[in-house]
Specification:
91 residues; two-stranded parallel sheet
Length: 91
């Protein structure tokens, strides 16, 4: 299984491991363009549920996956400082 420079599993646009289409990887284990977070993993899980529903119905996967819209981002800068972006507005 191929990994990126920090050890995350390389996946295709459907979160599948190339060569192992029955294996899906999400969250902080998957090499994606988003910072890992619980809300990201939840959106990815919804995508995978949609993909599995299509697979079990004998339908093709969509050409493009629905865009993931994050509600906000929080980060820590040590023990006493941090940053946040919620709803597109700075706190």
């Amino acid at each position: 299984m191929e990994k990126d420079s920090i050890g995350r599993v390389l996946v295709n646009k459907y979160y599948q491991v190339p060569g192992h289409e029955d294996v899906f990887v999400v969250g902080d284990c998957a090499a994606l363009n988003h910072a890992p977070s619980a809300q990201l993993a939840e959106s990815q899980a919804e995508h995978i549920a949609m993909l599995l529903t299509k697979k079990w119905a004998g339908e093709e996967f969509p050409d493009e996956m629905p865009k993931i819209k994050l509600k906000g981002v929080l980060g820590s800068l040590g023990k006493k400082h941090g940053f946040g972006l919620m709803g597109g507005k700075k706190p």
